[in-house]
Amino acid sequence: MLIVHHDHASPAGPVADRFAAQGWAVADHLVVPAESFHAPGVTTAFPDFTGFGAVVVLGSPWSAYDHALIGSWVLPEIEQLRKADAAGVPVLGICFGGQLLAAAHGGSVARSATPEIGWAEVESDDESLVPGGAWFQWHYDRWTLPPGATELARNPAASQAFTLRRNLALQFHPELTAASLAGWLANGGAAEAAARGLDVASLVARTSALAPGAARRAGALIDGFLTHI
Q1: How confident is the prediction for the chain on average, in pLDDT?
Q2: CA nearest to 128, candidates 70, 181, 86, 168
Q3: CA distance 159 to 154
Q4: Is the sign of the CA dihedral 156, 100, 118, 195 positive or negative?
């Protein structure tokens, strides 16, 4: 299976670990290398998504609709998602990846009136696929559902999960660990959080407390994806 990393500071953590534990060979593709982080309009040769048994598309510090900044790769990636869908390849989209699934299949992505940074409760309609509970959030945008999609989870801020054929979109971050949060904070996230009035030290402490339990639920989520999607 293929994991698409959009930036250098976003490892797949327990998501990749669970696929590997279930016997999957994991391949990685990095879109924007560290040296291009502040000028992300790069070009990249995506692997053919239809050549994999499953694809995971991770988050991104950029917006799915900012084609002036990242159109050089986000438009080809959306086309890859459409081809994967047509070929029946299962896709798990996380945060930005979930938003790309919405955009690829007839939904939309726009700035949210209620952006989220930190741990937030998510209500699920299907615990066997998307466990509810506290999940880590870091997003300024949100999707509208594509035609035919089934919403599975939500909170007061945004739709949090949907399925469409063999696609599962998540707005939250099951891959997050304390180490990956440290990477986000070191690459501009600390300033963003502080500018929004958040106590970064409290965010780090809460993540240290909640991330191990969330990692266990992330394993259950991947098992659900492999079983149901």
Answers
A1: 97
A2: 168
A3: 4
A4: negative
In the chain, the amino acid numbered 105 is H
Q: Which residues are catalytic?
A: 95, 173, 175
Domain that residue 17 falls in: 2-228
- Structurally, the chain folds into a number of domains equal to 1
Amino acid at 37: F
With vertex at residue 106, the alpha carbon angle to CA 102 and CA 108, rounded to the nearest 5 degrees, is 55
Q: pLDDT digits over 148-203, tens only?
A: 999 999 999 999 999 999 999 999 999 999 999 999 999 999 999 999 999 999 99
Closest CA to 15 of 96, 90, 93, 86: 93
CATH number at residue 23: 3.40.50.880
Q: What is the pTM of this model?
A: 0.97
Residue pair 166/172 in contact by the 8 Å Cβ criterion? no
Token pair for 185: 């904070």
Model pLDDT, residue 37: 97
C-alpha distances (whole Å) from 153 to each of 127, 217, 228 are 9, 15, 16
Give yes or no for a contact between 84 and 91, defined as CB atoms under 8 angstroms apart: yes
Q: Where are the alpha helices (DSSP H) in 119-195?
A: 178-184, 190-195
CB of 16 closer than 8 Å to CB of 26: yes
The per-residue pLDDT for 11 is 96
Q: Are 173 and 218 in contact (CB under 8 A)?
A: no
Provide the pLDDT for residue 114. 96
